[in-house]
Hints:
Blueprint: E1 24-30, E2 33-39, E3 47-51, H1 62-70, E4 74-78, H2 97-114, E5 119-124, H3 126-137, E6 144-148, H4 158-163, H5 166-186, H6 190-193, H7 197-208, H8 212-224, H9 229-235, E7 239-244, H10 252-262, E8 265-269, H11 276-279, H12 281-293, H13 299-309
Parallel strand pairs: 3-4, 3-5, 5-6, 6-7, 7-8
Antiparallel strand pairs: 1-2, 2-4
Amino acid sequence: xxxxxxxxxxxxxxxxxxxxxxxxxxxxxxxxxxxxxxxxxxxxxxxxxxxxxxxxxxxxxxxxxxxxxxxxxxxxxxxxxxxxxxxxxxxxxxxxxxxxxxxxxxxxxxxxxxxxxxxxxxxxxxxxxxxxxxxxxxxxxxxxxxxxxxxxxxxxxxxxxxxxxxxxxxxxxxxxxxxxxxxxxxxxxxxxxxxxxxxxxxxxxxxxxxxxxxxxxxxxxxxxxxxxxxxxxxxxxxxxxxxxxxxxxxxxxxxxxxxxxxxxxxxxxxxxxxxxxxxxxxxxxxxxxxxxxxxxxxxxxxxxxxxxxx
Length: 310
């Protein structure tokens, strides 16, 4: 979601949803209909399923796809239902965390049937809450879970305050008015203004393609999700908590606490705010590949590295 705010810790021109990649544009089955995806093709080393956040899309992972494939893994990045190129139902209730997680599990089962090796799951931001619910519902499907710029529970702070205005804006002028309002807010943000024009056009096109019902339902989920950290820890699924050094959604402190409560690996990514895969893709990919090569490796060592970054 395009939101005001910025930090000296991020590189404003390093926005790479338009990065070149060799992934095929495909659809995969979801419970409410087909989901648009980018798929690098089968590989012997296993598969990574990448789930986008609120108002995001599969393109948020574009810079990671070729390096993941080069490492011997299949990468499949999806639009969730109602996002960008994935159709979705007209009922906001169909966009609950549980419903979206059921889509993820449906895709995961197909990927497990198609490809050998482990299946790793990554969720960015709101996609992390969805991915967590998928693991809680069916932990045996997944070899690991990565929470990238995600949190332990519902969103708070300035981004949550903006979400509370979403319903009235949709009532007054639909998705177009929401987009126009966010673009006006972005005009006060030097970071947003530094985004290259082709990327700005893509972001506009993508936002306008969102389902109004999806925006309502996902926003409600973001504002009400309970803390399920203890439940996740009890599954025994290895977890990586990774986030930008200046994350302005769930705070770095909240994500650090979540990692400690999970006994998870914890990585802090420099030159990144809330979207490390876009803002610092090289470092993000290195962190992810290290985790996926040995998900059970010591969380304590990763916390030591994270502390050294601060």
